Amino acid sequence: MTTKTLKASATGSAILPALFAVILGLGIITLAGHVQASALHDAAHDVRHATGFPCH
């Protein structure tokens, strides 16, 4: 009886998260570049309140 062991490729498993990070980063930069400054300020302000960080 013989047993075969399959080895996962380290390169293949590392490319997918890196590719996802690049696509997510480019999406965030693109959206932030096209939104109005007041909307970005309001969103950051709301996140500060939601995390309990004092901003006033």
From TrEMBL:
Record lineage: Bacteria, Pseudomonadati, Pseudomonadota, Alphaproteobacteria, Rhodobacterales
Name of the protein this chain belongs to: CbtB-domain containing protein
Origin superkingdom: Bacteria
Species of the source: Ruegeria sp. PrR005
InterPro entries per UniProt: CbtB_put (IPR012667)
Pfam family membership, one: CbtB
